[in-house]
Amino acid sequence: MTQYAIVTDLNRCVGCLACSVACKVVNSVAIGQYWNKVLRIGPYPNTEGGTFPDTYMYFLTVQCQHCKDPECVKVCPTEASHKLEDGTVQIDKSKCIGCQFCVMACPYGVRYLNKTERVVEKCTLCEQKTAAGELPQCVAQCGGRARFFGDLDQGLESFRGAGKVTKDDPSYDAVLNGTCTLGEIAKPFTDDEVYALPDVGNKPSFRYILRKHEWKGSIN
Fold first, then answer.
1. What does pTM read for this prediction?
2. Cα four-point dihedral sign 3, 109, 12, 172
3. Closest by CA position to 62, among listed 197, 199, 195
4. Shortest CA distance to 70 belongs to which of 200, 198, 197?
5. Beta-strand pair 55-63/81-83
6. Strand, coil or helix: what is 139?
7. Which residues contact 63 (CB under 8 A, 6 or more apart)?
8. Which fold has domain 4-209?
9. E-assigned strand segments in 64-167
């Protein structure tokens, strides 16, 4: 069974917000709304009582987690919110009545009501792109090459990201049009360095890699 998701290497993320901006542009997300938020986590001391520069900080990207057992789908009275065979959670706007039950059920606060259209919106994982074999825009535009897209059932190292710069062709077009895998460019990591946002029974699909620092995954 396919479960599309994004894995973010938090040790590579520089907090540039390119993923958030790219998402808004390609999906025409309204001013004041975000399908993809970037949160600053920290700074925290590396050692007890430590002060700057003995501190660490990382950036946590938060969007629809395209959960395996999504609460938003369970509470939708019209089946507007539904799960596809590729594992993504989508919204059929023709069925959405704007009741916002799904907004209240989402444990991550990543859904909102489009007040103009009176329908709920959220990250679609760029379904219009992935269906054509392309990367989600937030992955394709990641300046730190920290975001990768793929199928959880195929393993994290198979996830694809923006192409790496090579000596033969270091151009922007080569990076944008090419791809590489997480396994090719990421530093080694162990299973206990892979995290997910808090699971309240919904089984979030997105993964985050964080090495040598304490995971502060609560977004409350």
1. 0.92
2. positive
3. 197
4. 200
5. unpaired
6. helix
7. 23, 35, 36, 37, 110, 122, 123, 138, 206
8. Alpha-Beta Plaits (3.30.70)
9. 81-83, 89-91, 112-114, 119-121, 147-151, 160-162
Count how many Cα atoms sit within 13 Å of the Cα of residue 55 in the half-sphere of its side chain. Answer: 10
Residue 13, token pair as written in the block: 């993320």
CA atoms within 13 A on the CB side of 47: 3
For the chain, the C-alpha Rg in angstroms (whole number) is: 18
Q: Kindly state the DSSP code that residue 32 receives in the 8-state scheme.
A: T
Q: Which helix (H) or strand (E) holds 157?
A: none
What digits encode the pLDDT tens for the residues 156-202? Answer: 999 999 887 676 777 777 766 778 999 999 999 999 999 999 999 99
Residue 49 C-alpha from the chain's centroid: 33
Mean confidence (pLDDT) of the chain: 93
Contact 66, 86 (CB under 8 A): no
- 80 φ/ψ sector (left φ>0, alpha ψ -120 to 50, else beta): alpha
Closest by Cα among 64, 69, 62 to 19? 62
pLDDT in tens, 85-136: 999 999 999 999 999 999 999 999 999 999 999 999 999 999 999 999 999 9
